[in-house]
Automatic annotation (TrEMBL):
<dbReference type="InterPro" id="IPR011711">
    <property type="entry name" value="GntR_C"/>
</dbReference>
<feature type="domain" description="HTH gntR-type">
    <location>
        <begin position="4"/>
        <end position="72"/>
    </location>
</feature>
<keyword id="KW-0805">Transcription regulation</keyword>
<protein>
    <submittedName>
        <fullName>FadR family transcriptional regulator</fullName>
    </submittedName>
</protein>
<dbReference type="InterPro" id="IPR008920">
    <property type="entry name" value="TF_FadR/GntR_C"/>
</dbReference>
<keyword id="KW-0804">Transcription</keyword>
<dbReference type="Pfam" id="PF00392">
    <property type="entry name" value="GntR"/>
</dbReference>
<dbReference type="InterPro" id="IPR000524">
    <property type="entry name" value="Tscrpt_reg_HTH_GntR"/>
</dbReference>
<dbReference type="InterPro" id="IPR036390">
    <property type="entry name" value="WH_DNA-bd_sf"/>
</dbReference>
<dbReference type="InterPro" id="IPR036388">
    <property type="entry name" value="WH-like_DNA-bd_sf"/>
</dbReference>
<dbReference type="Pfam" id="PF07729">
    <property type="entry name" value="FCD"/>
</dbReference>
<keyword id="KW-0238">DNA-binding</keyword>
Amino acid sequence: MSNLSATNQIINYIKENILSGNFKINSKLPSERKIAEQFNISRIPVRKAIEKLCDDGILMSVPYSSPIVKGFKKVDLFNDNEIYKNHNIQEFYVESLRARQFIESEATKLAVLNASDEEIERIRVAYLKSIAELDKVAKGLIKECSDADLKFHKEIIAASHNPLFYKYYEIIPKTIFSNQYFGFKYRTSLNDMIEHHDKIMEAFEKRDPILAYNAMYNHLEDVIQLFQSK
């Protein structure tokens, strides 16, 4: 995050707090002054970030007052002529998770077959980190756990030795980012997630491609069911 411009840091900060529920929908955003003081910067990048988020429909400008938080109402990943442009965000995420389910289940199977010992060790380290970070979700620290969980998935994708599978993470980063946030936000128990990660890791230890495919498939199916129940 430190490599980003001040404006982009503020944009990410506001988005993350909306996704985590710290900034409630239809509530006022903290003042420009308060945000600027928190980051020890001038109010100019804060104002630019707010203007951008208002243009995107995530915030609503209010004359002589802080903007109102509107949240993520529609998908902004596509051109106006794309069929998904006006889809409800929940509906789109279910569809994007189905795509992840297909790709990552197959990638996990390939990774079990193709991963070197060094790659399996990197997967194991990422797995242990993701489990260790899960207790932070209960404290509202979703960002830390989201990063650790994403690292676990990316190491598996890389170990598949299929460049097309790895490339898809770069093609739809906003979708994956939000998948992680909402998956943690709506989860009522972390035990199921731990069990799924355990099962995925077990498949690597046993070098069992069928177990690997099913473990990842069921893991993402659980997230899909979270979305569909809301």
